Amino acid sequence: MPTAIIERTDIPLMPIGEAYDMGRAPDGKPLFDPRIFDSREFARNPYPYYRILRDHYPVYHDKLHNCFYLTRYDDITTAYMDDEGFNTIPKGASNPVLGNTQLELSGVEHRRRRNLYGQHLVGNSLNARIPAIERLASEMIIRFSGSGADEMATENTAGRRTVELGKAFANEFPIRVVCQVLGFPEEAQDKFFYWYYSMMTGLGGSETARQGLEARQDLEDYVAGLVVERRANPTFLCDNDGNSMGEDIISKLSRTQIDGDWLSVEEVTSNIALIVGGGGETTRGAILNMWYLLLSHPEQFAAVRADPSLFQQAIHETLRHSSSIGGQPRHTSYDITMRGVTIPGGSLVNCVDFSANHDDRVFKEPERFDIFRDDLYTGKLIRNGYDAEGKHSHMAFGVGPHLCPGAWISLQESILGSEVLLKHLKNTRMNLDRMPKDINGVTLAPIGGGAIRELWIDFDA
Amino acid sequence: MMATKTELMQLPGTAPGRNGVEIRASLGGRGGFYRSYEVYQRQRVKESTYLINARVFLKPEFLRDPYPALKLMRENYPFYRDWVGNCDWVTLYNDVTSIFVDDANFETRAKAWFYGMPGFGRDLREELPVLWAFASGIDRHVVPIAEELIAGLKRAGAPDLATGVFDRLDTYLLAAVLGLPRDDWDTFARRYRAMMEGWHWHPSREQDGKDAIARLSTYFAPLLDARRAVPRDDLLSALASGELESGPATAEDVVATLLEGDGDTLRGSLINMWGLLLSNPEQLADIRGDPSLAKRAWQEGLRHTTPVLTAKRFARQEVERFGRLIPEGGLVVCSGASGNRDAAIFDDPDRFDVRRKDLCYREPRGQYRADGLPAGIAFGPGRPSRYPAVPEDRPRSLYAITRDAAVAVSNLILAELPGLGLAGAERPEPFCRWPGDLHLYRELPVTF
Ligand code: HEM
């Protein structure tokens, strides 16, 4: 008689790209263990598991976490485009901290709010702000690359300087850009960084959730005063020549009425949190992941060096290959049957952008990083996605009504920032000794699901 | 003319929906409305639930002893948002029972649905001929089967009350009540157990469970035909007969009926009751002196160490409870085990006490209470009877049937095994083998 025991849940760590064996059905179909989602293995090596879901469980019911997963490019597109069937009521673990925002709205209500400040992140407004973004990037980069900037470098030996690119540049740059368009007061920006990091590490369910909620409350208290001030005296964004381009986002939000009511301080704060939360970590990840991938593919890096306009392709391929956001939650508004599985109304459906971007029904050899691939669309972003001449847009910004409104500005940040980096840093290479290592202590830590933690580079001083 | 309120709310192409929220005309019917987020509360600093990390529910410490975490939730977050499990936990006695009796707002999803086999078979448990055949079958078979298993225990080299008697009792009893040939009982028992353990989430158990369902369906088909031709006095014949209101059962209906019924609670309640008695020898001695206490021990055991820790209910529509808006389809995890240890309901709730005075010892009616006393919350035996008195055309409730069977078996053990006590120095403890599993003593090695 076998002795009953508590089942072990340790999940083995596998070589990157290989899934561990979760067992098989008699017909050979691999089984899928939902405990994987909570594991360290999955955080560092998610793609082979998504492949199993795509190939064998395109609509996967995770009963342990009470949700469904969509993992194929086509199905996710369907869900994102159908904002009636797949609604966005508040649900995510980020909600307590970020608050309710347009992310959680649909239909008319969504469009009204989205239009409030969308204009600042795209088109002519954005073009007019490009010099300011470029200036900011140069200022930040010169701090650690210019002569006399030795104290910024961790190591500074004859002719060689070592920095962590996140700390030196990418962590703060996107937040500063966003603070500018928000019109967040300069003098409070240091506090703002603290609030921002606390909120980001304090999302729901984590041990630091309380800290996140407190930071959010502090931010809200601060914004309360700001709203009153801006309602009376709005501040403006200016182009390079000092011409006003309209109210900055905080002024705009403070002075907006919907159905005859001012937006509440709560809602203004939530929007600020969303814009910074949505634009900080994500763009940081895009920049760092791109540099990591380019530096580990020297021939592609050489091509970009020779022709920096290739950054456009490189950033899109980075976002396809290793986006910094895994996917988006939706809720079914009524029973929906997809691929033979009926998802009851009110179910949480996780649409996995990571997986859509690695769907080999759409992108050949999806695990390969190749800025020259011929099946990825890298042109101007299109709300409804791109699918023509064998090319598809990637899913990193989503698609449909909720398509990331910050996509344009974050692409500009990544490209402009990288161009400035390229200009100032000579002979850039990765500092392998300092790079975080994988579990085995030898190979580099993989990007996994999300952004690379640190990127250590050497360059010629 | 003044527009009425409804007219004002009605935009072109929309219709006023539940709670006055507009529904797109194109969607109509069920759901499909846009809900403003303003109605959803955002968690505030004061509401942060940092004392508990939802990952604990999957950890061995919780599987072994869930009670500290449940207590923490009762005392701090009686309605706890679990981001990992995408659900809300309800842990206070009154809250748990209020949801269990609220069918209008909260639905129980069939185990077949969890298996990804919605619409598999019909659950015929409520058919009168089935109820009668079930009740009379249990009454007839429980003592002979228990006698046989106890006799086996007496012969065993290393007798174990859990694995030797209780692990087999419920399945053998079901097999006998169905009227299966004796030679098939062990195979049936294995498949039944696999089926009952597979619906939760565990991939290999789910696979085994599906396999068992398929095999059981194949197995029952010829038996049903035979019973239709020559009926006997057993549950299968009742299922096969033309007397059922919804028509005679197919093999899949038989399997579905078994699957949806929590037949294995008899096992869980007996194992835990005896695990507790053996760990509290003075109370075991007490019962020996007064066999009428066996019934109380069973009820107190179910209360104190509840085999089914939680039950899932899904909100049928958006509903406000406990100061929170639960969205349509929201999962509420109701912990009966926690409610049973609620100090506002039971004095010194962590103490196992067969003479406890604040536990209702009659079958609860309606709202989990009788004689003004709360009943323990247990799932297998079903919810409290809907009937103020058992109608003449119905057998006694599943609760009463299960209880009487457990009491009969316990009395037999007391009579047959004098000097019963734990073997070895190690004190057994109940545990779940994986999240969602029954919380049970797994082994009870004994001497007598
Ligand atoms: C590489 C960087 C970025 C990535 C990968 C990214 C990704 C996304 C995705 C996938 C969504 C869709 C959410 C959904 O479908 O529910 C989204 C929405 C959003 N993003 Fe971004 N984002 C990035 C940068 C930014 C920036 C720089 C900003 C602000 C300046 C921003 C602000 C927002 C906002 C406000 C939304 C909500 C849109 C809505 O619900 O209508 N994002 N983002």
Model description:
The complex is a heterodimer of chains A (461) and B (448). Chain A is an alpha+beta fold and 461 residues long. Chain A has a domain at 97-311 and 405-426: Cytochrome p450 (Orthogonal Bundle). Helices cover 42% and strands 13% of the residues of chain A. In chain A, the strands form 6 sheets. In chain A, strands 1-2-13-10-3 form a 5-stranded mixed β-sheet. A 4-stranded antiparallel β-sheet of chain A has the order 4-5-17-16. A two-stranded antiparallel sheet of chain A has the order 6-7. The N and C termini of chain A lie far apart (71 Å). The model of chain A has no long low-confidence stretch (mean pLDDT 90). Chain B is of the alpha+beta class. Chain B has 2 domains: 1-42, no CATH class; 128-447, Orthogonal Bundle (Cytochrome p450), CATH 1.10.630.10. Chain B contains 16 helices and 13 strands. Chain B has helices at 5-9, 60-64, 67-76, 93-100, 111-114, 128-155, 161-178, 185-197, 203-229, 235-240, 251-260, 265-279, 281-289, 293-304, 336-339, 398-416, and strands at 14-16, 22-24, 79-82, 87-90, 106-107, 311-315, 319-321, 324-326, 331-334, 369-370, 373-374, 421-422, 446-447. In chain B, helix 9 (203-229) packs across helix 11. The longest helix of chain B is centred in the N-terminal third of the chain and has 28 residues, at 128-155. The radius of gyration of chain B is 24 Å and the shape is globular. The N and C termini of chain B lie far apart (89 Å). The model of chain B is unreliable at 1-32 (pLDDT under 50). The chains are: A alpha+beta (461), B alpha+beta (448). At the A-B interface, helix 5 and helix 10 of A face helix 2 and helix 9 of B. The structure holds protoporphyrin IX containing FE (HEM). Protoporphyrin IX containing FE (HEM) binds next to helix 12, helix 13 and helix 17 of chain A.
